[in-house]
UniProtKB/TrEMBL annotation:
This is cyclic-guanylate-specific phosphodiesterase. Coiled coil: none annotated. The chain holds residues 406 to 683 of 683 of the full protein. The lineage of its organism: Bacteria, Pseudomonadati, Pseudomonadota, Gammaproteobacteria, Oceanospirillales. Residues 24-278 form the EAL domain. It is found in: Membrane.
Length: 278
């Protein structure tokens, strides 16, 4: 009986593994179609100065307009895109789309605004990255000073030589560099002081409970002070409440991003974007 139960369990497990694998394969196929049929869209979320509440930039965030399933958020497909390598094509589409939209739609936006683009670890490793970005900038006429690239701690830790030279080249083009989701990975200030990085984006997991969690308060305050000693600007992501905003101002956090100010929206909506001070 034990054997049968074991078998049953095994086959059940096996089946669910199989269906997970099937779902992944389906997703992979759908992603290939999505790239070909241009089913992706970008939404933009403003990044504001904490003290004057001025918009200093917008982060481009990808969404997938799936023909049957509606709008799909990146957490549902970026992982598989990364595993299968599809992120490379998707990533270039994102860079191109941001640059096209900057040239087409930003007539009402005031400089010096930057548009932030997320680079996944695989993209960051891609040997054609710099050449392709240069090409896109030439084709669209976008000034590198309008761009910021967000890389994750895991991307920059893997091969420091490569990281250093890639970041330097991006900076030579005029772009700025932010470390995304800071505090969730294993990078250290010891390493950061040697890299040409401009900003740290404190992960929203440290912000969510900021009002009540004393450890988070100490961590965030400490991160901001350390970053400032290294002449890095700090962005807090995921600000949802006035109290979080107040604490971050008190800690001298430079920039903020979150639903309190604005959720990510399509580029069209930015034209009539008016920030109402709190
Ligand atoms: P991220 O780069 O850390 O982006 C910030 C995420 O936090 C976004 O989620 C944004 O919508 C969300 N967010 C902003 N403010 C708030 C807030 O106040 N509360 C809460 N709960 N969330 C907030 P989104 O758009 O779902 O993107 C998730 C992740 O997917 C991004 O995290 C980024 O890692 C990845 N991603 C998005 N677009 C791209 C892309 O074009 N390329 C690559 N490689 N990754 C992307
Ligand atoms: Mg980001
Ligand atoms: Mg982030
Ligand atoms: Mg994040």
């Amino acid at each position: 009986a034990a054997k049968t139960a074991g078998k049953k369990r095994f086959s059940f497990y096996d089946q669910s593994l199989q269906s997970i694998a099937m779902a992944k394969l389906q997703l992979e196929d759908d992603l290939a179609i999505a790239i070909k049929d241009k089913q992706f869209v970008l939404h933009y979320q403003p990044i504001l100065t904490q003290l004057t509440d001025e918009v200093t930039g917008y982060e481009a965030l990808i969404r997938w307009k799936h023909p049957d399933q509606g709008l799909i958020y990146p957490d549902k497909f970026i992982g598989v895109a990364e595993e299968t390598g599809k992120i490379i094509d998707i990533g270039y589409w994102v860079i191109k789309e941001v640059c096209n939209q900057i040239m087409l739609r930003t007539s009402n936006l005031q400089p010096p605004l930057r548009f932030s683009i997320n680079l996944s670890p695989k993209q960051f490793k891609d040997t054609n990255l710099l050449e392709n970005i240069r090409h896109i900038m030439q084709e669209t006429g976008v000034d590198g000073r309008s761009l910021e690239f967000e890389v994750t701690e895991s991307s920059i830790m893997e091969d420091i030589e490569h990281t250093n030279s890639t970041l330097l080249q991006l900076k030579k083009m005029g772009a700025s560099i932010a470390i995304d989701d800071f505090g969730t990975g294993y990078s250290s200030f010891a390493l950061l002081k040697h890299l040409p990085v401009d900003k740290l984006k404190i992960d929203k997991s440290f912000i969510t409970d900021l009002e009540t969690d004393l450890s988070d308060q100490k961590i965030v305050h400490g991160l901001i002070s350390m970053a400032h000693k290294l002449h890095l600007e700090v962005v807090a992501e995921g600000i949802e409440t006035k109290e979080q905003h107040r604490l971050l101002k008190q800690y001298k956090c430079d920039l903020g991003q979150g639903y309190l100010f604005r959720k990510p929206v399509p580029m069209d909506h930015l034209q009539n974007f008016i920030y109402k001070p709190l």
